[in-house]
Amino acid sequence: MGHKKYEGLGGINKPLTNFKYNWGKNSKRKISEECLRHKEWRMENLWFIEDLVTNDLVLFKMKPEQKLLFDSWEAGKKEVTGTQDIWREIILKARQMGISTFALVYMMDDVTFNKNWRAGVISHDKASAKKLLRKIKVMWEHFPLADALRNDVDVNNEEEFSIKSTNSGISVGLSYRGGTLNHLHVSELGKMSSKYPLRAEEVITGAIPAITPGGMATIESTAEGVGGHFYEMWNDSPGNGYKRHFFPWFNEWKYEKKFEGDITEKFLEIQKKYSLSNRKISWYYAQSKILKDLLFQEYPSCSEEAFLQSGRPVFDMSLVRRCNVEMPKAMYSYAVGVDTATGLASDFSVATIVCKETGQQVSTHRRKDTISIFSKKVVELAILYNNAVINIELNGVGIAMKEAVEAQGYTNLHLDQSGYDKATKKYTNRLGTVTTSRSKEAMMVDVRRGFEDGYLKISDEKTYTELAAFQFDEKGKMSAPVGSHDDCFVAGTKILTNKGQVPIEKIKVGDLVMTRDGFKPVIMTRDKLKKVVKNIGLIGTPDHPIITKNQGEVPLKKINDTSILYIWNEKLFSIEEKNFVKRFVGKGIIGKRRVYNLQVADKQEYFANNILVHNCVMALFLSVRSLKDVYISGYKSERQIRNSRAKRKRSNVLSTSRKIKDGVY
Prior knowledge:
Low-confidence stretches: 1-26, 481-485, 616-629, 631-642, 647-665
Structural class: alpha+beta
Number of helices: 19
Strand content: 25-35%
Mean pLDDT: 78
Strand order of the largest sheet: 5-6-7-4-8-9-3-10
Distance between the termini: 117 Å
């Protein structure tokens, strides 16, 4: 029996064992046809790479996490072969785990040993793309075949490498919209999502759909903060069809150093939690001094930590102390912060209870009740927790909540300064708190200081996660990142402003938009890619709240001909109340679009295509705002501390003056 003839390597009508393999002058290594049948053997015996530490040329050998991926990718290939589907995997990892190198070797082997096989690699920036292409060229230059076969190269430039006789090739770049692909590998989608969101969107909408049925899409990245396409894809897996893998830093054998014994208690706890050696934790501790806040982003120990601590977080989550839920204790005082929703849409009303003496978040309640029902629950909780002070966020439907609480006869409500009266030269007070862009940022500053002081402690897991989502933007302002479950409208949606109708994508922070209380400034804008529906002349995310007179806030997808809407009449320059007849109502999902949303100061609403809609405050604001409301009641703000110091200083000066006057000095 003769040797089996492979179609790969140019389909030359000779068995591969007839070729001379360049193992070196003194090598006596031999190769068998049976070995060449196995991809795993070929990857570990035919492909050379540069060692990351020594830069020496070494034969590629799989590490445990690479072998795990190999087995998974091979199984995935078999599963989708002959189907109209593709195999999808998403990988969250620590830095320099060799995943991209593994992907290149895997793909180069496919390109070399298969006819009509197209592979593509997308990197997050040009420099990284060049490094990946250089690795490919190093692999081919040292491929142990005779020169005749190695010269069988069709294209070899800065973007592509292909083999003439097999009609197979691999391209490396920042995007891919060419022909069909058998395998697409996306490197560092997290960084791309953070720095170049439109490019990341292009990968998702253009490159991945280019993969031929039976092909494969693999995505790997370190984390880059809560939010963005990579974060969403990781969170949605495996429901979105992507098999997920996480590789922590301590899986990498080279991440260790001599133990020096000067490890802090925090890192000793990490060592115990993950059963790490002294050399491992010593290396990790040394990295913490270099990377500081970026440590958990670049070298996460668990997937949750990777996202919570990456990006430019407002709150250092390593300082956030945890506590347990507690029943009220005698002689302790408590405060209840309340953020209200109508209970008719997808939004939750939230009540958070904090103990003044201990700073513990002792209880948190999220409900979709109506205002009437939720107000009764809030009063019950306040009475249970030693007649706690209730602080209600008054924006939107908060005023109705305050009135519902007062109607039950509960009077221990938080008193807040509402403004300065120039006539009386006094501050006026009101029950509850109105939040503005300035006050929200002040709240977060105070909350952060509470964590740094060790006073504030969190028991609620959702509050913890939502706190971690806050990031500093490019201008150094505190905000929630794109991709935190906000709802929006497509470009071209007209927003009513003091300058007339303006497309939503052109609205900027500071622009004045119309609300039922007149023009109010925009304090935040954001955009992202989401599925949208068309209804009542609006195209937006299915759950964007529409404000109705008779049904409260209703998701766009659920608006029908019985919903009474608030409509802006441009001719009369006034707000009308009317419902749409059936021929204007539709609920069709029309696919994914880039969508935009605004956050408006004081009044959480604006007019979109002349229809009053709710300014969709992201879910994470609920807990944080409630937390801060009670936190202000239980702990002095920076302004209060400054005023207190100034008051003490004035008191000391007056006291000294009196003593001098009385002859004591």
